Amino acid sequence: MTARVLDGRAVARQIYEEVGKAVSERLARGGSRPKLATVIVGEDQASITYVELKQRNARAVGIESEDHRLPATTTTDELLELTERLNEDDSVSGILIQQPAPKQIDMRRVIFALDPVKDVDGFHPVNAGLVALGMPDGVEPNTPAGIVELLERCGVAIEGANAVVVGRSNLVGKPTALLLLRRNATVTLCHTRTRDLAEHTQRADILVAAAGRANLIGKEMVKPGAAVVDVSTNWEGGHQVGDLGPGVEEVAGWLTPNPGGVGPMTRAMLIKNTYEAEVRRRP
C-alpha cells in the first residue's frame, strides 16, 4: 500500500481562494476590509520569515496587514502597552503576536490581555473555553482547525472513527482532540508517557502525531489504511522531520507530507480566522 497524500498546500490554496472571494464580496457590499496586525519581539530570523509569509498570504486575499517590530529588550509592560493600543484600534480585525518571545516576556499576561475577538490564534482562555465547551463563536486554534479541515476536505470520514492524538499540548494536542470529538469521533488522547502506546495507535482510524519526538511512531504502530497526520517539527541532521518513523507510508491509507502538510493549513486558517474576526466585529 502507498498512502494517499493529505496535501496541505493544495487545500490551503482552496481556502485562500474562498477567503479572497468572501473579502471581495464584502467590499463590494460596502463592508469593511479586514486587517491583520502582526507583532514580533526580537530578531529571530525564523519568526521574521514566518510572519512575512503570513502577511503575504493576507495581502494576497485582500486583507490589509501591518507589522510591529519591537527590540529584543522589550519588557512585558511595553508589549502589553502595544497590545492594548491594537485592541483599541478599530481598524484592526486580528492580532498575531509571534512566538516564541524573549524569555523576559510573560506571554501568559500578554495573551490574557488580548481582546478575545481579535485573538486570531485562538489562544485566549475565553476562546479556549468556548472551544472546549463546544459553544459558538470560539476562535479555533489554527493548527488543530487546519488538521480537521484537511481531513474533511480530503474525504477522510471523522464521524464514528477511532481517533488517537499523540501529544497533550495546549496548542495542538488537547484542542485537536476536542475538535475531533466535536465531529463525533471517538477520541483517545495519548502522550510520550502512555503505557504501551502502540496498543492505542494500532486501533486508530485517524492518528495525529503531535508529541515532538522524532521516530516516535513506527510503521508497526499504524493501523493499515489509517489517516495519519504528522504535526511535529523536529530536526535531524539539518532536515525537518516529524514524529513518524520510516515506512509509515507503506501502511497508512492517507498521510501528510512533512513539511507541506499541516504547516500550510496553519497559515491558511490564520487568514480565515482574521476574516471571520472582522465579520464578528462588523457583520
Distance between the termini: 48 Å
Q: List unreliable stretches of 5+ residues.
A: none
Output the radius of gyration.
19 Å
In the CATH hierarchy, what is the architecture of the largest domain at level 2?
3-Layer(aba) Sandwich
Mean of all residue-level pLDDT scores: 95
Number of domains: 2
The count of strands amounts to 11
Tell me, what is the CATH class of the largest domain? Alpha Beta
**SSE-based structural type:** alpha/beta
Q: Provide the CATH topology of the largest domain.
A: Rossmann fold
Can you put this structure into words, describing what you see?
This protein is of the alpha/beta class and 283 residues long. The chain folds into 2 domains: 100 residues, Leucine Dehydrogenase, chain A, domain 1 (Rossmann fold, 3-Layer(aba) Sandwich), CATH 3.40.50.10860; 121 residues, Rossmann fold. β5, α7 and β6 form a beta-alpha-beta unit. The chain starts with a strand and ends with a helix.
